[in-house]
Amino acid sequence: MKNVLILGAGLVSRPIVRYLLERTDRGIVVASRTVSKAKALIGGHPRGRAVAVNVEDDARVEALVKEAEVVVSLVPYTHHVRVAKMAVRHKAHVVTTSYVSPAMRELDKPARKAGVTILNEIGLDPGIDHMSAMQVIHRIQGSGGTVTHFSSCCGGLPAPEANTNPWGYKFSWSPRGVILAGRNPARFLRDGKVVQIPGPKLFANRWPYGVEGTGVFVIYPNRDSLPYVETYGLQGIRNMFRGTIRYPGWCETLKAIADLGLLDLEERSWPSGTTYASFLASFLKKGAGSVAERVAGKIGVRPDDPIVSRLEWAGLLSDRPIPETKASPLDVLSNRLLKMMAYAPGERDMILLRHEFVATWPDRPSMRTICVLADHGEPFGDSSMARTVSLPAAIAVRLLLEKRIGMRGVHVPVLPDVYEPVMAELGTLGIEFKEMSHVLLPGPFGAPVK
Question: Is 277 found in the same domain as 211?
Answer without folding.
Answer: no
